[in-house]
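Re: that backbone. Tokens:
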């Protein structure tokens, strides 16, 4: 195991539009570059891991002894050479060069790269290009044939001596180390990259997959002479739910869960009890402004899980109808909604059929 892993984290992130260079931003609870360190450590494939940064003071955490932090250069190729020069004295056999902006590679990819180096001097992961690419020469436009083009990713793996000799003789700016081999007509082995191993380039790349969870709970007393509404559906029953509105515990819990996930306080703030205009309001009407708030902020629902807690009516009898009603009200596919019925062994107010309660958990994305 004479392998070394160099992580380049000294870019200027011109396209990232943030006061902090992107390699230091927090991504999935850790600085972006730390994902690559942790994976390299977990793989146990490397003698040393070299993190090349533009300001060592910005790294205030202690890492294991085999993680070395060095100050990089002006351009990517300068930083890469600084990393290579650092490990040269250790007489490495193989070196992997990686962009800190790709935190989502797998350990399997690392293993494949090292394995392929046994028979090759340069091993590069690639993926097929998804977009149609045009290129311009002087004023003329050309189409790039998608079947013959692909994107290169990192980590890129090399025999140290071959990469080092090319690097010290390179003067022009290069975008990756594979370019050195290709421009010198040297053989490069391409292996299958990973579609999930995308480079984080723009702020949107980070926020696109965020998931938020919300929880809601509600309980109303059952009283004679009122109609029962559950999930917006009128259900024949001897009593209805007492409340300022129609007392629909399912919708009230959904509203609180959605507001919670959006971090917008609660149903009581949105519909104060003491406001006359909300008296006897149908809960479906209360849901509307919440859905509008979601749409306006570009949230969408991933799923809802509902526990309806009562002895009667039996949930199994109305499950499909309630789910259908909710899917219409929320404008989502019914397959995203789950409704469970729960009895309480005749205990307490709910057990004596004097109240119905509901809890909802929801997941939304933006
Ligand atoms: Zn309520």
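Recovered sequence:
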């Amino acid at each position: 195991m004479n392998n070394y892993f160099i992580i380049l984290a000294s870019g200027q992130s011109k396209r990232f539009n943030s006061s902090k260079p992107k390699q230091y931003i927090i991504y999935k609870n850790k600085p972006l570059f730390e994902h690559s360190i942790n994976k390299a450590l977990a793989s146990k494939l490397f003698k040393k891991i070299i993190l090349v940064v533009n300001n060592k003071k910005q790294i205030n955490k202690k890492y294991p002894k085999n993680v070395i932090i060095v100050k990089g250069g002006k351009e990517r190729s300068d930083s890469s050479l600084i990393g290579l020069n650092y490990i040269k004295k250790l007489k490495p056999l193989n070196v992997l060069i990686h962009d800190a902006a790709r935190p989502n590679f797998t350990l399997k990819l690392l293993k494949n790269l090292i394995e392929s180096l046994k028979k090759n001097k340069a091993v590069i992961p690639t993926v097929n290009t998804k977009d149609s690419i045009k290129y311009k020469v002087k004023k003329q436009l050309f189409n790039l044939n998608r079947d013959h083009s692909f994107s290169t990713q990192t980590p890129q793996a090399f025999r140290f001596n071959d990469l080092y000799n090319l690097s010290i003789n390179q003067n022009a700016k290069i975008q990756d180390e594979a370019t050195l081999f290709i421009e010198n007509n040297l053989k490069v082995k391409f292996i299958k990259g990973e579609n999930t191993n995308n480079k984080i380039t723009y702020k949107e790349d980070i926020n696109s997959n965020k998931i938020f969870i919300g929880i809601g709970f509600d309980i109303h007393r059952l009283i004679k002479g009122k109609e029962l509404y559950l999930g917006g559906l009128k259900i024949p029953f001897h009593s209805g739910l007492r409340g300022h509105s129609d007392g629909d515990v399912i919708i009230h819990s959904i509203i609180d869960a959605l507001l919670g996930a959006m971090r917008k306080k609660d149903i009581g703030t949105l519909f104060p009890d003491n406001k006359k205009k909300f008296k006897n309001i149908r809960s479906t009407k209360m849901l509307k402004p919440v859905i509008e708030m979601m749409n306006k902020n570009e949230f969408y629902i991933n799923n809802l899980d509902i526990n309806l807690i009562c002895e009667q009516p039996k949930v199994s009898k109305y499950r499909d109808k309630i789910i259908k009603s909710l899917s219409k009200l929320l404008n989502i596919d019914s397959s995203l909604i789950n409704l469970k019925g729960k009895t309480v062994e005749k205990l307490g107010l709910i057990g004596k059929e004097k109240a119905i309660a509901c809890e909802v958990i929801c997941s939304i994305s933006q």
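The domain at 3-206 is CATH 3.90.550.10 (Spore Coat Polysaccharide Biosynthesis Protein SpsA; Chain A). The chain has a mean pLDDT of 92.
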